[in-house]
Amino acid sequence: MSRLILLALYLIYVSSSTSAAAICNILSNSEACLLPFPDDFWRDSTSSTPHINLDNSSLPVDTNGGLIDPISGGYNSLSGFSTLGPILAYIPGIDLTINSALPRLWDISSSSDATTSSSIFLDVEAKTALEHWVELDESSDGPTPYEKVLLAWPASRLRDSTRHIVAFRNILDENGIPVTRSDGFDALVRGTPTNNPAIEAARPRFASIFTALESMGWPRENLTLAWDFTTTSPEDISSVFLSMRKDALNRIANGVRFEITSVDNAPAANTSRRIHGQFWVPCYLNYDAVPALDSHIIVDAQGKPVWQNDGEL
User: Fold this and answer.
1) Whole-number Å distance between alpha carbons of 67 and 18
2) Whole-angstrom Cα distance, residue 93 to residue 102?
3) What pLDDT, in 10s, does the model give residues 167-199?
4) What are the domain boundaries of the chain?
């Protein structure tokens, strides 16, 4: 499971005590102010090397009250977001039984028909509506049955380094009343001027989103929520492990060190010999590769794995 999936799953627990001072997504009116996520609101695309740009003050705290560090955690070194989902959003009061045009797990194929579905997952470059399904996160604990995070799951792995648009239209609450857009999104849809610099800076991006959706038959006036995000590159996904593999192979170029402690001849039927011993391999984890809840790869300032010792197995 990628680091970004783990981060996304944790975002649903933003509390009022932590969100008050947070830098919130312009699409959110709620305490879950990082949602929707992933969202290119949290990506710096103006840099010569586009990358995620999360801040400590935007993130929830852990159970000990500590801040999550997106830099040491490696999030901000990534060029984009996970290719595997889930996609998280908060649409207040949404009732999936009333919104029957939303694709569910047992009706995934309906999501590829942009003319009838109430949600769309768009590969912008391919101009293709991707199959997906939605569900409410039953592990979240909103004050009512409908105050839960909405999860959108792509039915297959997303393409690398690709812009995607997620949108919902004509969504009803539990009383059958259209869900009110957030203030920020409503201003973007209607073109209403604001005194929020982040909203004003986002207008060109959302003009592109609305144009792409309109080309699929989704006029902006019907939208409840829409945003875009860019997936990460193959280098982001594999470079750490390829670097570690290269270093490890160099360290065992003359063979893996091993020691045989005993040999059992014919210990059992169909077994001619059982060899006991241990061998040592390059280790890049804390705790000498002993499994623990906080086991992780030690990396340098450039995010490359750092050899710790030769771990005994």
Assistant:
1) 10
2) 15
3) 999 999 989 999 999 999 999 999 999 999 999
4) 3-230, 234-312
